Structure formats: structure tokens, C-alpha cells
Amino acid sequence: MAKPIQYQFEEHHLRRSEPNKYKPEDLKTEEMVVNIGPQHPSTHGVLRLEVVTDGEIIVEVVPHLGYLHRCFEKHAENLPYNQSIPFVDRMDYLASMNSEHAFAMGVEQMLGISDKIPPRIEYIRVLVAELNRLASHFVAIGTYAMDIGAYTPFLWLMRDREHIIRLLEWTCGARMLYNYIWIGGLYYDLPIGFEERCAEFVQYLRPKLLELENLVIHNKIFVERTAKVGVLPLDTAINYGVSGPMLRGSGLKFDLRRVDGYSIYPELDFDIPVGDGSMGSLGDCWDRNYVRVKECYESLSMVEQCLARLQSDYPRTRDFDPRAVVPKKIRPRRQDFYSRAETPRGELGFFFRTDGKSDIPLRCKARSSCFVNLSVISEIARGSMIADLIAILGSVDIVLGEVDR
Amino acid sequence: MKQENIQQLLTEKLGEGVILRTDAGASPPILEVPPQRIAEVCQLLHEHEQTYFDYLSCLTALDNGPDTNTMEVIYHLYSIPYNYQIGLKATLKREKEGKILPQIPTISHIWQSANWHEREAFDLLGIVFVGHPDLRRILLPADWEGHPLRKDYEEQAYYHGVKVEY
Question: Are A127 and A303 within 8 A, CB to CB?
């Protein structure tokens, strides 16, 4: 007798719980359904793509999500705001600092304490958020290059990302899921010597970015592979609610850091790179990656500016307490509140419904940027080759943790 | 364009009864409209040259619980050229689990981004968007029972022979 496995197994348990949208009888004779994922490495996580193909040509793509659904919204309805922050980290696990920043800012605005936050804290927040944005873009570009066949950029970028991860580990002890930005403050002040080490890192990274640009973006093979592939016109992008580098890749100069001017971004000098279609058509995969690489330069310059301000205007003092404004009790008044911020992948929004009587929100909805960005994939992949689907999916830069929440 | 101007524009074009209530304390301000007229309000706001809300930021559905017996759908619109945000709200009658689900017209033909947001709202709260092209569950498996974000949700005991409660 076979050993029982894990639970009482019965034959009908093998029934597929997520049926395909397209049934064999609905297809034309020449069409066929090909499944990609959920365990395929180039789906960047656990995403299943049901692809209806006519030979090599894609007729329709149907994404099946939810393999990484961890009920963030249900959890947030049962937890005080400060305890939700670790859950927010785990949504977009490649850019936790940015998500934390967005969440903390939303709650602070609800409480009306956003102008009481000391500038040193704001600068540290933007510093770590921009470092994390660099790390996130490195993963995006590195894995993208690997998807389409180049292994070296991935290793080089992981090497540089490791430095950022170690810097962030030094600030709070965790490599990826930080819980560093708290509502009203920070977990700790920066460790002593952080500014100097970080400045050294900026010096180190600048030539590496140039190297990256030459190695990947202007590489002839890369250009041939990505130009004119997966073209996303601007009106489609806006109608689908696409945001972040994807929207800017389609040629719109739209960045919430500039438009909303939250935190201390108005005091920083930065440019918003947009795609211009110089290698193919506007809004193709090359443009999206070009925008990401250019954003790395901007983030690096912002890191440098923050470091300069932290060393000159708001230096470390003995009596500085990063938890001074952290509220003892987080109980916003009764309101509906929608706050948004720019993460490496686009607009991350949080909607809160509070009743003014309890410390937990009645409803907390996370508007995830990847979720919305991914919804456009059937539109841009239709009519292209199956091999291009991998290139298109990679250029959307999804993190399944945020898609499924 | 301010909230008052939008209100005025809507009543001018669509009649007095189109705005039931306004919530200026919310951020962004929220206008409450009758659920059956949500599509035409959105269409007007999307196309009118003075509003031009071309971007649907967020679509939230929420459950007020069995005591109030209502559900709400909240739309956050954003106009990129005017840099202005506004919220729309529709309140629906809520039915007990297993009975007829609450219904509201879809807006996915106006903004494609509503397509997945509406599927999510259907999945997690059990609101039917009438006229939606592809209303399937999106985050949960197709054979999951119930809608978890409802306040009176109780999970099923077993799913394919695996105990759900942990």
C-alpha cells in the first residue's frame, strides 16, 4: 500500500481549480492553447499565462493571477496601522522602502501630522527609498536581460544591488523586508558612518551605470531584440491606467514625485526621463528599459543630494530622536482617504475608510501598480510572436507579490 | 475646476437627481451618485472637455456589514491635464450570502483599467458589474466559495480535501 501523502488524498482533488478561459471547442482549427507558467522562470514569479496561438502568432493572452494572494486587505482590516507596515513590505518585496513610505505618508496625512515630521527624517526616508528604487530597477533590468538571453548584466547588476542591500541592512537589520519607515518617524536613525559609506558607494556606482548603459541598452543585440516589440501607444496606456516607467516609456512626462510633490521631492533637483522612440517606435520594450536606466541616474543624483543635505543642513545630533513624532495611538478621524505615491513600478495608492472610533481601518484597499500595469499585456502582446511575449512581460516589470497582494 | 463646478456641470447635463450627497471632508472629495447612473456620469466626466478625467486611479468596493446592509463602490478619477482628483461613490443594497448579489453597471467600456478592478471587486466582495465583458474571479480560484472581504464571511471548511482553517 502506498504511503498516504500529507492529507487524505482522493482522485477528485486533482481537478484543476483555475480552468482555462478558452475551451477547445471555442477555438478555430488552427488555434491552440499554450500555457506558460506558473512555474516558469521568465514569468518572474507565479503567473500563469494562457496563450491562444495561431502557429507562432499570439491571438490572445489571458493572465491567471492569485497564486501568491496573501489577503493583504483582509489583514489590514484587522490590524492597527503600524502593524500593517510589515504586510506592506511583503507586497512589493523588491521595493519595500518605497511601499512603506507610501503607506506611512498616507496615514500621516490622515492624522494631520505630515508637517510635524522633522526634515532629517524626511531626508533619510527619501534617501533609503531612492536607494531601494535603484536596487529594484537593477533587478528589473538584470532579469530582463536574462530573459532575452544575456546573462552577464544580471550578474553585474546583482553585484551592485548587493551593495545597496547591505547598506539598507545596516540601517535596519533586514535585507529586503525592512519595516524601517514608521508612521511619524523611523525605526532608528542612520548608523554612524552611513553617510560616508553611502557617498563612497555613489562614487563607485556612477561609472557602473555608464557601463550598464553601454553593455545593455545600447547593445546592438538588445536593441534588435526589444525595439518595435510590444508597442504601447500613449492613449491605450492612459486608458488602462498604466503608470510609472511604463507610462513614461510611452512618452508622457508624468511622475507623481513631481506632480504631487510629496515629502521633500520639491527640494530635490531631478529630471523625468521619458521614452522617445529613438530606436524603434514610441512605447516599445526598449523605451521602457531606457527609462529605467535613465531613472537610475536620477535616483543616484537624488541620493547624492540627500546625503549632502544630511551632512550639511540636518546633521546627526546626540539628542535626535527618530521616534519623537511617532504617535502613541493612531486613530484618524472619520474619513475616506486616498493617498498615492510613486514606487519603482508606478502609482501605489492606498484607500482608507476610517470610522474615528477604532485604531484599525474599516477598509484598506491597495491600488497596486503592477496589477494595473499587467492588465495591459493582452493588448500589447496580441499579434506578436510567442518569443516576444517573454520580452514584453519582462518589460512590464511585475512583482507577483504586488500583483496578487 | 473645483468640486462645486463639477457638481454644477453634472446637474446641468444630467438633471437634479444625479448627485445624492457630497462628502467634502474626504480626500479627494467624493460625490455620491445613484448606482444605476454611474456609467453615464463617468462617461460625461471622461469626455467633457472641462473635466477630462482620463485616468481611473482606483476602484474600491467595500462592505458596510450586515447591520447597515449596504455595500459601496468608490471610484477615484484623476485628470492628467488638469491635475485634479475626484471620487465618485455608489451605495448598493446588500443581500445575504447566497441570495442575489448586488448589481451595478460596469464602467470598463470607458476605462479599460476598470476591467480588472471590477473583477477583483466581484471576486472579493461579490458585486456583479452588469455588462462586464469577462466577469470571472481573478485572485481566488474559480471554485472558491464566498467572498472574503464581506464582513460576515466565513471560510469553507475544506477546499479540495485540504482543511482551510489553520
Answer: yes
- Judge: A239–B113 Cβ closer than 8 Å, yes or no: yes
DSSP H helical ranges for A90-216: 96-111, 119-147, 152-172, 194-212
Phi, psi of A347 (to 5 degrees): -75, 115
DSSP alpha helix (H) spans, B21-113: 38-47, 65-68
* φ, ψ at A49 (rounded to 5°): -110, 120
ipTM of the modeled complex: 0.89
In sequence order, what DSSP letters do the residues of A40-101 get, joined into one string?
-GGGTSS-EEEEEEETTEEEEEEEE--TT---HHHHHTTS-HHHHHHHHHTTSTTSHHHHHH
Which residue segments constitute the domains of chain A, with CATH numbers given? 78-358 (1.10.645.10)
Closest alpha carbon to A271 in A250, A300, A246: A300
Q: 23-42 in B: which are within 8 Å (CB) of A? A: 23, 25-28, 30
Q: Is A25 on the interface with B (CB under 8 A)?
A: no
Record: contact B80-A254, CB cut-off 8 A? yes
Q: Count of A–B CB contacts within 8 Å?
A: 108
Q: Could you tell me which chain A residue has the CA closest to the CA of B59?
A: A367
Per-residue pLDDT of chain A (405 residues; tens, 9 = 90+): 666 556 666 666 666 657 888 888 888 888 888 888 787 777 777 888 889 999 899 999 999 988 888 889 989 988 999 889 999 999 888 999 999 999 999 999 988 888 888 899 999 999 999 999 999 999 999 999 988 888 888 999 999 999 999 999 999 888 889 889 999 889 888 898 899 999 999 999 999 999 888 888 888 888 988 888 888 999 999 999 899 899 998 988 999 988 888 888 998 999 999 988 888 888 888 999 999 999 999 999 999 999 999 888 888 888 888 888 888 888 888 889 999 999 999 899 999 999 888 888 989 999 999 899 999 998 899 889 888 888 898 888 888 888 888
Q: Which residues on A lie below 8 Å from B142 (Cβ)? A: 17-19
Helix, strand, coil in percent for chain A, rounding step 5: 50, 10, 40
Residues B117/B125, Cβ–Cβ less than 8 Å: no
- Per the structure, the count of domains in chain B is 1
Please give the DSSP secondary-structure letter assigned to residue B70.
E
Buried b (16+ CB within 10 A) or exposed e, A41-75: ebbbbbbbbbbbbeeeebbbbbbbbbbbbebbbeb
Domain of residue B107, CATH code = 3.30.460.80
8 A C-beta contact, residue A382 and residue A66: no
Instruction: Find the residue in A nearest to B78 (Cα).
Output: A241
